[in-house]
Amino acid sequence: MKIGIVGSEAAKFTSDTQAKARETIRDIIADAELVISGHCHLGGIDIWAIEEAKKLVIPTIEYPPAKLQWSGGYKERNLQIARASDIVVCITVREFPPDYKGMRFNYCYHCKTDTHIKSGGCWTVKQAELMGKETFVLAV
Fold first, then answer.
1. CB burial of residue 94 (10 Å; 0-12, 13-18, 19+)
2. Phi, psi dihedrals of residue 128, rounded to the nearest 5°
């Protein structure tokens, strides 16, 4: 099974939620034949997925964005991940850490829910769903 792991940047995690995210990643990829992610320059789920896969000696593919912008960068990268994966999992958090300084939204406008924060990974999951892929959004 080729598993795409996407989600939130490192700054949106505390040390506790990072530990939970890494544990979740290990559980998800335990039987994977390939782990696919997006090599986010802001760290977080993309990087941790590859690190955890390498610890388990699972092959990986990373699709970094060609540019650090939506069009010509993140959008195309996210679609590559969705196309290459059998399952796409987005891992995010339920709430922002108190010291988070970035942009905040009251809900995830991709998923139309307030059970987790907005993540670009949620957009990738929605695209994978349209391709008929199995998808999950998990909040730690």
1. exposed
2. -65, -40
Chain position carrying tokens 């940047």: 9
Question: 82: part of which helix (H) or strand (E)?
Answer: helix 75-84
Tokens at residue 24, please? 């979740």
- CATH classification code of 2-139: 3.40.50.450
**pLDDT per residue rounded down to tens, the chain (140 residues):** 999 999 999 999 999 999 999 999 999 999 999 999 999 999 999 999 999 999 999 999 999 999 999 999 999 999 999 999 999 999 999 999 999 999 999 889 999 999 999 998 999 999 999 999 999 999 99
> Of 19, 81, 82, which Cα lies nearest the Cα of 52?
19
Locate the domains of the chain by residue range: 2-139
